[in-house]
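Trying the structure run again after the queue cleared.
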Amino acid sequence: MADYADALAQFAERVGLPFHDSLLLRTALTHRSFLNEHPDFTWEDNERLEYLGDAVLDFMLAEYLFLHFPAASEGDLTALRAALVRREALARFAQALGLGDALLMGHGESETGGRERPATLCAAFEALVGAVYLDQGLAGASHFVLPLMERELASARIEAADKDPKSRLQERAQGLMGMTPRYRTVKADGPDHAKVFTVQVFIGERVCGEGEGPNKQLAAQRAAADALLRQDEWPRPQEPE
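Done. Tokens:
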């Protein structure tokens, strides 16, 4: 037990995270496989903290982006936040912190690559954010998270500028047709936790593209991308009389 406590203290010192309640840090770094192999240890794994950290990240980044990008649309803000909290990004933050090596993990899980698995690293990072929030409040969580996000945010903005079919479609449709594309959700299939939305984009009264996705925003982006590929099917601009 002392060895675990020393390892957690060393991790906290190395990443600059002094905890008031060391039990929160221990819980954040406990993978459930560790407790499966050590049933005599009675503390909980990090899954509940993962849930909390996910919500804290969403709110924290929503507030940060809202305040720092006053000219951005709701869609732009949503896209930026989604890029920052996606699994690959959070796993990179965890790797930068050396979080995988610090996890209390079962031998079998570790031997099969658990410490490098993106899903595990993402979950551990979210759990750590949840623990920092409970220990130090939103200000402490922001102080920990936001510096990590700065480089990722720059990349996300470049990616959003390069890969925003809706913006490109609107510019092209207005330039060629004098019309603004309209989006309509025409279908939502599947259970609540795994819905697939279908969105159609209209130019004038004609359906010019269709896309599917796990949320309406992504489905609309894909519909716009489809419309851009089918530009030769767009309605002809009316000739002046």
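The radius of gyration is 23 Å. Worth checking whether this holds up in the mutant runs.
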